[in-house]
Amino acid sequence: MFRPRATPWIHRKSRFLIAGIATFGAIVTGYLAVTKLIGGEAACPVAGCDKVLNSSYAEIFGVPLPVFGFLAYAFMGTMAIAPWLFNPESQKQLRKQVEELSWLFLFIGSFAMTIFSSYLIYVMAFKIQSFCLYCIVSAICCLSLLILTLMGRDWEDRGQLVFTGVIVGMVTLIGTLAIYAPIENVSANASNSAQVALAEHLSQADAKMYGAYWCGHCKTQKELFGAEAVKKMPYIECDAGGQNPQPQRCEAAKITSYPTWEINGQLYPGVQTLETLAQLSDYQGSLEFATP
């Protein structure tokens, strides 16, 4: 007489663990999302978080990245507890179907999140060149979710699982690269004559734009000028890790946020429209800055 094989503990506890990690991830990303939306600064025990969280990579389509992170963790948590929402006696068949389908969604979600977070770690290390504790924690959570999903049950058709993983990986990677492609080029738009003229006038008027290479709003400001004009604008790099840095000038000017314009001895923080810059600097040329 054979005794039934005991269910491995990881199979019994995997959904609890996945739900717990997803809840933790949702709390972290929710905190970052709310902080970003209200214009605050997230508390971080290590230096460098501000560079990463304020970089152009920290937004997708103008929405703070932590918002998408919160939604992803909420989805994972929902899939983890989905079978528990059905009565195991009266809804036994439905519960079994939901359990099977939710495992597939858990695999797709955790695999996509792991690939995306891996790309962000690459960006943090080689593009922004700064350390963010929140990003590291989130990446560990994503990888943990994937491992628990793979180990949390017996996957009968492993070939189908591999095929699904390849498709999900390709879609996630291609989508990620497509979303962030414009960031690799500071300004893809061509400048018109008015934008070039304003940039030259600002340089001649001894105006200055203080910024940092990792600053998303600084890139937005440069994009208003266009590709040709941005080469002529009076830009000062404040971060020592940027190209041609001049941090001492930024310290002397008491710059506390990026970008900040200095025009006629006055400081103007934040992204400024070209019309505003023209008015502040007494620019007398054409104001037709919009490019076709």
According to DSSP, the number of beta strands is 6
The largest β sheet comes out as: 4 strands, mixed
Strand order within the widest sheet? Answer: 4-3-5-6
Overall morphology = elongated
Low-pLDDT regions: none
**CATH level-3 fold name of the largest domain:** de novo design (two linked rop proteins)
SSE topology string: HHEEHHHHHEHEHEEH
Detailed description of the structure:
The chain is an alpha+beta fold and 292 residues long. The chain folds into two domains: 9-184, VKOR domain (de novo design (two linked rop proteins)); 193-280, 3-Layer(aba) Sandwich (Glutaredoxin). The chain has ten helices and six strands; from the N terminus they run H-H-E-E-H-H-H-H-H-E-H-E-H-E-E-H. The protein has helices at 9-37, 49-53, 65-81, 92-128, 133-151, 158-184, 193-204, 216-225, 247-252, 274-280; strands spanning 59-60, 63-64, 208-211, 235-237, 260-263, 266-269. The strands form two sheets. Strands 4-3-5-6 form a four-stranded mixed β-sheet. Strands 1-2 form a two-stranded antiparallel ribbon. Strand 5 (260-263) and strand 6 form a beta hairpin. Helix 1 (9-37) runs antiparallel to helix 3 (65-81). The longest helix is centred in the middle third of the chain and has 37 residues, at 92-128. It is elongated. The model has no long low-confidence stretch (mean pLDDT 89).
